[in-house]
Design goal:
The protein is α/β, with parallel strands linked by helices. It has one domain: Aldolase class I (TIM Barrel). The protein has helices at 67-70, 76-84, 102-115, 155-158, 161-168, 182-195, 211-228, 236-241, and strands at 2-8, 11-12, 14-18, 28-33, 71-74, 90-94, 120-125, 141-144, 173-179, 202-206, 231-232. Strands 3-4-6-7-8-9-10-11 form an 8-stranded mixed β-sheet. It is globular and about 45 Å long.
Length: 247
């Protein structure tokens, strides 16, 4: 069984859209959003996947969510069926932190690949969890988003040297750092140098859940990326659909 987030109570967050971030921006994709996360970002825009009633970890919105209405268990075969029927040839596994459910994901993705060997599978991960041996060969692309200090997570939990080094050495992995100011961006430069991250696989993305904030931060972030040879990621889905579920 996989534990999924919901769009509405009882309806899993499996949906077709355009990828809004990182190296696959603009590509038609089917998304499956998994529930639960091992980190707690204060600015997380999917807090309904982890900030359940009774969870005292801080979040700037302050709202907590009823677990029964925001979480749903579904058989791997049914998830695979919905993915294959969504009309795309690219699957994005997102969350939450999807790799917390690596064993069940391996079974689900295996069914997808068995039916459609050409199906492209991406995992969006915070970079603290390794894919199990059964899942890793089935993944075509890792979108790794390590969390910096402004996320509210201590580095001892969010920036694990062994995991970052492993992803930096994996040609399938792209790094995407959420930044709010130039100090965050300069921290990324230090991490790039420390772990040998390839600049052409390293994106900076402004933190924000509305177009005005994203555009404001792009004003300094775009020239910063130019100066340092990094790639810039927008949040296309925010401009198109706003900060909404199932988009």
């Amino acid at each position: 069984m996989l534990t999924l987030a919901t769009v509405t109570p009882g309806e899993p967050e499996i949906f077709a859209s355009l990828q809004g971030e990182g190296p696959s921006t603009g590509r038609p994709s089917v998304f499956a959003r998994l529930s639960r996360c091992n980190l707690a970002c204060v600015w997380c825009d999917t807090a309904y996947t982890w900030h359940f009633t009774g969870d005292e970890r801080p979040h700037r919105g302050g709202e907590t969510y009823a677990r029964p209405a925001n979480q749903l268990a579904m058989a791997e075969a049914e998830v695979a069926r919905r993915v294959l029927g969504a009309g795309a040839d690219r699957l994005v596994l997102t969350g939450g932190e999807p790799l917390l459910q690596g064993a069940a994901l391996a079974r689900m993705v295996g069914l997808v690949k068995e039916s459609r060997p050409d199906f492209h599978v991406e995992v969006e991960t915070n970079g603290t969890v390794a894919a199990p041996a059964a899942l890793d060969p089935l993944i075509d692309q890792y979108n790794v988003s390590p969390k910096l200090a402004h996320s509210g997570n201590p580095a001892s939990l969010a920036l694990l040297p062994d995991r970052i080094a492993a992803y930096a050495a994996d040609a399938r992995a792209f790094f995407k750092f959420v930044v709010a100011n130039e100090a965050d961006a300069r921290t990324v430069l230090s991490l790039r140098d420390e772990f040998g991250m390839a600049s052409d696989r390293l994106f900076l993305m402004p933190e924000g859940t509305d177009s005005a904030t994203l555009r404001e931060r792009m004003q300094w972030l775009a020239p910063f990326c130019q100066r340092h040879g990094l790639r810039l990621s927008d949040r296309l889905h925010i401009h198109l659909y706003g900060d909404t579920r199932g988009t």
